[in-house]
Amino acid sequence: MYDVHGPKNEDFMTILARLQRWKEQGAISAEQHAHLASLSRGEPFSLFLELNLLLYVGVLAFVAGLGWTVSTWSQQLGDVVILTVLSGFLAACSWYCFSRAPVWSPVETPAPSPIFDYVLYLGSLVWCVELAYLENRFHVLSGQWDLYLLVSAGLFFFLAYRFDNRFVLSLALSSLAGWFGLKISHWPTHQDAEYRQYALLYCVLVGVGGAILQHRSLKPHFFGTYLNIVANVLFLALLSGVFDRQGYGLWFFALLIACTASLAWGLTRRQFAFVAYAAVYGYVGVSSIFLRSVNDNTAVMSYFVFTAIAMLVLLVKIARRFGRPA
Amino acid sequence: MRIYSASSEETLRARQLLKDWTGDGFLTKEQYQRLEQETVSDLRTTNIFLRLVLFVFTLISISAAAGLFFAVSGPPEQAIGVFFLIFAAVCYAAAEFAVSQARLYRYGVEEALAACSVGFLSAGILFAFFTGSPYSPKLESLVPAAGAVFSLWIWRRFGLWYAFLAAMMFVVFLPGYWTSSHSAQHLIVAGFYATGLICVAAVRTRHRFDYLDDTYSLVEAFLWLGIYLAMNLKLSPSDLPAQWWSGTRATPEFARPFYWTTWVLIWCLPPIVLTRGIRQKDRFVIAVGAIVSILTFVSNKPYLGWPRHTWDPIILGILLTGVAVFIRRWLARGPSGIRHGFTAARLSAKDKDWMNAGSAVFGLLTPQSITPAAQTGSKDFRFGGGASGGGGATGDF
């Protein structure tokens, strides 16, 4: 076996040696050298990510246990106890967040304390548990229970924008998606077609809403979250149309437009997730059109060999031109 | 042994660090532009999304090419294995070529070629030597053994971390061919991982501050996790479904001394792993230490045969958040927010990017992950079971 670069360690220099050389060359100051060298040695070592992950898992475990306990022991504990406890948690979380939140600002705002985001998230999840309990026990909306999702989505959007919290923004977007999705269950037939329509409506609503908010500079850093969710829901909805046996032409055309737009967006903004969406969803859609009437294994395999290689060539060209690590 | 030269990989690492430091404001744009000239590498890299897509399409093209070959030529059954072995050789040669000639580095294409060579080799050995012949478990263990050895080679040669993971998975299948005793199987797997751990620990001290440190760190973390999972009888796949929630005592096939020794071990391993991670300031090992600690708490009751309670997750949640808050406050009270070389403060903009991406994804996943299983007696009602979301609503009361 051989090595790419001939003799090993010919020009090998660790980052610490490089920093020393750059300091001697005057490219960096002594202070910069000291700081960067200590960072390279892991001094100090930041536990920021680990502690945040621990908090997230802790909140998740707590709410999962709460939901499980409430659902299992509702008859033994009684409505009053359960609602008092859940409302107590909700009130405590709300009090903590509203009492400690800084003045609202349309730009990105750091959390006032390290646990702030998780208290807000805990409160949001407890809200969901309490609403579910209320409706199940008292049938307040008597069957129109999907309205709870709409109300929850509205509340979560407000909280996400008030406290600048991406966890809650994702909850809001998923609640809204749930509301659109759950509506479909009221229709016994043509669920796919209905689903697509509602999915597209959801995409338009969320996409346009996100764009307007970004245009007005209201938490513009949230726009990426909107866009990624909209792109995935849109592509899935269009693909479900392409997979239909009849009337798929329009959906296929729409898929091609969406892929082109996603590709253009990804390349111009250097957001390569959108290039990946265009490549994968587009390939699946085009393949389903080409292969739907093909039963011959050889033809199918040939198709995949040639098209996958064609995609590789195209993607390598894109990667060479645009795709250096950002 | 490694296909990339040390200087190339170290240069790429330096280039990435320069970019991070400039993003964090530790270097000026002018300094970055000047220093960037000294970190030019001839290796061709790309970003994670294109890497993934390139990997997938390379995998599709190779699989389809193999399928097409068999569909067109229809080789006899005995020859299938030989052709798989030829495919393995071709894929491996192509991976070497892609790196040596096209200078690809974590580009997806050479990775998929290397991954396919492992798959084809294992399938090739299975079909070439064991199809149609009488079952011989000891000989058939050559299949996972070859898979493990070749995966290790791919890991060493190309530095692909998931090749090491694949080798560890192949090792899991090995003892099943050698012994029917489940206790012995657990011990053999743990023994393999422990041997690997000793080797890695011995080697990595020489690479504390170079580009290989991350590689060895990840591998060490995998090995610790592997040892723990091999020793935790309540997490082994055969026991998992039946015993997890019922809280029944151990399966009778495990001798009592072995069973209780593993129980002691699952309590001993987390502090050992955490201590090792903290002493080494090793992010991956610390993470595995935290994971195995949680797994120990979660699997303790099934081990002891105690029934689970619905409030167990609540206690676990309080414990985890309590520990996180305590550590954060304790570190923050140190001089400049630092104690023993550790800080709870964010030092890199990359951490913030990770947090932003993670919070968006986790926020979407939460509604599904915390929704409890359907309860009996209220089948007519479901809250939060929407096809595309649910907002975290935990229904089915």
Could you please describe the fold and organization of this structure?
The complex is a heterodimer of chains A (326) and B (397). In chain A, helix 3 runs parallel beside helix 5. With 326 residues, chain A is mostly helical. Chain A has 2 domains: 136 residues, no CATH class; 131 residues, no CATH class. Chain A is 75% helix and 1% strand. Chain A has 12 helices and 1 strand. The longest helix of chain A is centred in the N-terminal third of the chain and has 30 residues. Chain B is mainly α. Chain B has a domain of 132 residues. In chain B, strands 1-2 form a two-stranded antiparallel sheet. The longest helix of chain B is centred in the N-terminal third of the chain and has 26 residues. The C terminus of chain B is likely disordered.
Short description:
The complex is a heterodimer of chains A (326) and B (397). Chain A has 326 residues and is an all-alpha fold.
Which sequence of SSEs, written as H and E, runs from N to C of chain A? HHEHHHHHHHHHH
Widest β-sheet, arrangement of strands of chain B: 1-2
Shape label of chain A: flat
Number of helices of chain A: 12
Count of helical stretches of chain B = 15
**Approximately how much helix is present in the residues of chain B?**
55-70%
Which blocks of ≥5 consecutive residues of chain B have pLDDT under 50? 369-397
N- to C-terminal distance of chain A: 33 Å
Radius of gyration of chain B: 25 Å
- How many domains of chain A, as an integer? 2
Shape annotation of chain B: globular
| Ends distance of chain B | 60 Å
